[in-house]
Amino acid sequence: xxxxxxxxxxxxxxxxxxxxxxxxxxxxxxxxxxxxxxxxxxxxxxxxxxxxxxxxxxxxxxxxxxxxxxxxxxxxxxxxxxxxxxxxxxxxxxxxxxxxxxxxxxxxxxxxxxxxxxxxxxxxxxxxxxxxxxxxxxxxxxxxxxxxxxxxxxxxxxxxxxxxxxxxxxxxxxxxxxxxxxxxxxxxxxxxxxxxxxxxxxxxxxxxxxxxxxxxxxxxxxxxxxxxxxxxxxxxxxxxxxxxxxxxxxxxxxxxxxxxxxxxxxxxxxxxxxxxxxxxxxxxxxxxxxxxxxxxxxxxx
Length: 301
Description:
The chain is 60% helix and 11% strand.
């Protein structure tokens, strides 16, 4: 079974998502109908107007990670349940379709930033006296009125809803298929399928915590006009974990990755021991020839 496309898609997405968080991880809040963002990446607070522009890019990575999960489940569903292997063109077309849907939502933010008539500092007075001030001063920030992107919810909600309906349908179908054919599979294939199942399950559940929950939290503060001072902090922390946990799960669960990492560890030799095993040169009963094969026996993964 070839799952390279699925694994590569997740790895590439996580890499760029992690790199973006490294540069411009946003911390957000909503005050009086204005969506504020502050960058918490390694470079620190980005100057005007760059902070505001980090919002659409961050949203792209967040929602694209949800779409990727749906694409991965579709690929495995077709492969196992229908014996259909998607070629690169069709696979990339599915990814591109999801990306276009996400970009169409992000364009609400980009369009406002390209056509706005007031700059970010126009809304600075709303931050005076809040916990967002640093040493009595207002740091660099981005400000986007909620009214500028509220219609985008008609796109963002279906993206999340449809993606998880696909995940649920494909997940149930895959579970039933694997359960029905489990006794027919070789033990190595069982382990392989189990590893892929664990990885994809984590990739399906993780966005619920790191994407769906923050989205619902943002929507609550925006639609109900309630300012939770801790909401942005939770969103910031949860979104920071997503691009880190996925690769770690792959490295720990998939045996070939795990064994490779163990072989690179400096103390790997302490987990190996020589084994002595007789090996007949041929199968003739009168053969007296034996060879002693001394090979390092790697500890079971």
